[in-house]
């Protein structure tokens, strides 16, 4: 990366949006499952889960506060999970990587939004086996919007629309067929909506390779988790992370400078 200003903004914005990512990943599934009054993405204010002390603005950026406070709450010394700084670090590193690979402009901004949404969906699906419409549907419409704004120069609007339709139908038909034959669910509609969204970003031509890469990455992850944690092969396994990883890889290959 030859532009230090761009590098600075990629680091700064990556950390800030990584902090927001932590909030969304924790709160959105809770909002969907419990629908409590007064609980949303903004309220109540972020606080320590043990002593309930409200966090300062600095405390809500775990990448710094977690390291300085050695992974403990400033007010009660309760241990804080390393997950929060790792999520911020992942977002920041991916944003810096996109800034290094893509030219400045609309495509880079689109890539940052894509990375953020795919990270959110991946983390939520891993923990809750859930791909919320509040994330998959904006991802789909943004794919078409960025194509109209000429931020995705390698596909046409027609390819984007067909990609979304075909992507949804492919996994919907697979899920419907499996349910007819086995009498139980194999894939959720969230997976179909995520594939539709990626079809809108990549075009229908990318769908076969996308599904192949997603299946391979999911198989590797399943085998690894089976070896490490003795996870049962019959236990529910999220397909969203594999789709997200494959979609991001193909986006980079197609748009890298």
UniProtKB/TrEMBL annotation:
GO CC list: plasma membrane
Protein purpose: Plays an essential role in type IV pili and type II pseudopili formation by proteolytically removing the leader sequence from substrate proteins and subsequently monomethylating the alpha-amino group of the newly exposed N-terminal phenylalanine.
Keywords, sorted A to Z: Cell inner membrane, Cell membrane, Hydrolase, Membrane, Methyltransferase, Multifunctional enzyme, Protease, Transferase, Transmembrane, Transmembrane helix
Record's keyword annotation contains Cell membrane: yes
Species whose genome carries this gene: Pantoea coffeiphila
Listed name of the protein: Prepilin leader peptidase/N-methyltransferase
InterPro entries hit by this protein: Peptidase_A24A_bac, Prepilin_IV_endopep_pep, Prepilin_pept_A24_N, Prepilin_peptidase/N-MTase
Stated family: Belongs to the peptidase A24 family.
Membrane-protein topology: Multi-pass membrane protein
Localization per Swiss-Prot or TrEMBL: Cell inner membrane; Cell membrane
Domain Prepilin type IV endopeptidase peptidase: from-to ranges: 112-222
A Pfam short name: Peptidase_A24
Molecular function via GO: aspartic-type endopeptidase activity; methyltransferase activity
Ranges for domain Prepilin peptidase A24 N-terminal: 12-99
GO terms of biological process kind: methylation; signal peptide processing
EC numbers, comma separated: 2.1.1.-, 3.4.23.43
């Amino acid at each position: 990366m030859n532009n230090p200003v761009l590098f600075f903004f990629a680091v700064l914005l990556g950390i800030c949006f990584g902090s927001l990512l932590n909030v969304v990943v924790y709160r959105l599934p809770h909002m969907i499952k419990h629908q409590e009054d007064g609980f949303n993405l903004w309220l109540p204010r972020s606080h320590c889960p043990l002593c309930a002390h409200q966090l300062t603005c600095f405390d809500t950026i775990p990448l710094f506060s977690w390291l300085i406070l050695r992974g403990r709450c400033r007010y009660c010394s309760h241990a804080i999970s390393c997950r929060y700084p790792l999520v911020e670090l992942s977002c920041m590193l991916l944003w810096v990587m996109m800034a290094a690979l893509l030219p400045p402009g609309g495509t880079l901004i689109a890539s940052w939004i894509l990375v953020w949404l795919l990270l959110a969906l991946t983390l939520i699906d891993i923990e809750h086996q859930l791909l919320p419409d509040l994330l998959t549907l904006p991802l789909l419409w943004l794919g078409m919007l960025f194509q109209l704004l000429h931020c995705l120069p390698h596909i046409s609007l027609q390819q984007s629309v067909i990609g979304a339709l075909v992507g949804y139908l492919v996994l919907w038909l697979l899920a419907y067929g499996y349910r007819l034959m086995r009498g139980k669910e194999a894939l959720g509609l969230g997976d179909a909506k995520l594939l539709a969204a990626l079809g809108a970003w990549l075009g229908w031509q990318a769908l076969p390779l996308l599904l192949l890469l997603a299946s391979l990455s999911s198989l590797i992850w399943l085998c690894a988790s089976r070896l490490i944690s003795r996870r049962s092969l019959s236990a529910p396994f999220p397909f969203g992370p594999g789709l997200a990883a494959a979609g991001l890889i193909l986006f980079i290959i197609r748009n890298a400078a």
